[in-house]
Amino acid sequence: MVEQIREIAETYLGNLTKDANLEERVKSAHTLDNYLEIYLSQTDSCKGRIQAQSTSGIIVGIIKNRDWSLSEGDVFITKSGKLLLIHLQEQKLMVLSFTEPVENYAIELFHLGHVLGNHHWPIIIKKNKIYIQLIIDAAIIEATIAKFKIPGLKIDYESCSSQEHLQFSYHSHNSQ
């Protein structure tokens, strides 16, 4: 059975961490029970249409442009006038690092980047490491990477807090 959306939020008010007046407005709405709160994955925060269940059990639909990602503390107002506070969950990332110099494996690394992009697995490169957003099962990504047999390639995992919102590169085949 598909649950019915009971609240629609498409009017963005701002972020309470940057706006003291909005923070007070959220506190007041919470006291008056005119408030909803949801926890989203960082992957969902990028979507244009999001459906989530609030902490009080109400199904909420969020409509926004895809050209920006939701952040911890973002606030919307629903069509019924309730304030909606967004929280982002911690995210687990795959981290590729190298125990040997990578200069000798430039072709293999270029090919690996191409394959990751063609699978639409978002990546970011920071401090000589490749971070891969786990939008599918990690074992599938690991198996794909293992096929390259790059010497010294090490696979680890790290958690990324909701405050550390990484801007991953996304690959698509849409022409604009």
Write a structural description.
With 176 residues, this protein is an alpha+beta fold. Helix content is 19%, strand content 35%. The protein has three helices and ten strands, in the order βαββββββαββαβ. The protein has a six-stranded mixed β-sheet. 22% of the residues are buried.
Number of helical runs? Answer: 3
Uncertain stretches: none
Category from helices, strands and their pairing: alpha+beta
Question: What is the strand arrangement across the widest sheet?
Answer: 2-6-5-1-4-3
- For the secondary structure, the number of strands is 10
Question: What is the gyration radius calculated from CA atoms?
Answer: 20 Å
Main sheet overview: 6 strands, mixed
Order of helices and strands: EHEEEEEEHEEHE
Mean pLDDT: 88
- How much of the sequence lies in strands comes to 25-35%
Secondary structure: helix percent: 10-25%
N-to-C terminal Cα separation, in Å?
Answer: 37 Å
Shape: elongated
SSE blueprint and pairings:
Elements lengths: L6 E9 L4 H12 L3 E6 L8 E5 L5 E5 L10 E5 L4 E6 L2 E8 L7 H13 L4 E4 L2 E5 L4 H9 L6 E8 L16
Parallel strand pairs: 1-4, 2-6
Antiparallel strand pairs: 1-5, 3-4, 5-6, 7-9, 7-10, 8-9
List keywords for this structure.
176 residues, alpha+beta, six-stranded mixed beta sheet, four-stranded antiparallel beta sheet
In brief, what are we looking at here?
The protein is α+β, with helices and mostly antiparallel strands. 19% of the residues lie in helices and 35% in strands. It has helices at 20-31, 106-118, 138-146; strands at residues 7-15, 35-40, 49-53, 59-63, 74-78, 83-88, 91-98, 123-126, 129-133, 153-160.
